[in-house]
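Reading a protein record of the kind used here takes little practice once its layout is understood. The fold follows as a row of integers, each naming the local backbone shape at the matching residue. With these conventions in mind, the following record can be read line by line:

_____
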Amino acid sequence: MIMENKTERAVRIIWYSFCVIIAAISIRRFGIGGRVFTAGLFLLSLALAGAEDIRTMHIPDWITAACGAAGLLSIPFFPEISLAGRCLGAFGVSGLLLCITLLAPGSFGGGDVKLTAASGIFLGLEGNLRAFALAVFMAGAFCVWMLFRGKLGRRDRIAFGPFLCAGMMLQAAGSGYL
């Protein structure tokens, strides 16, 4: 069992609070139905992926599979995202991350690559690109803040998954899917 310190516990509490707020917005906006059910599965898988990456720096495959399943289940409930957009979404950002990882080993983990592929099925290409841009911005701001505070060194590694998940959640909420 991995023990967590007070900072990790606080980060996980903040993370789950963020997830609950996004879910509450979705339910308030659409009520309970197919859109909310599939969006809820998507949000739950992202919440678990982010929390697990914070804790272990690893995103389990079963969580990525749940995210992909939410994307497949969402097809009839989110007709505004075309099948072509979903297919391109599955390969767009994840292909970019895979290329970067092959060129600069260790830059992204395999879980990040697989998670972006799975989320692309739900968000489509444009949504996944926006979510990735949000994630890069948030991770960069976090790293600058932590460097400034002296809590992070230039060569230290961070879990990128929580930033990816937050970007995906914000994209889903901001685009009207939730």
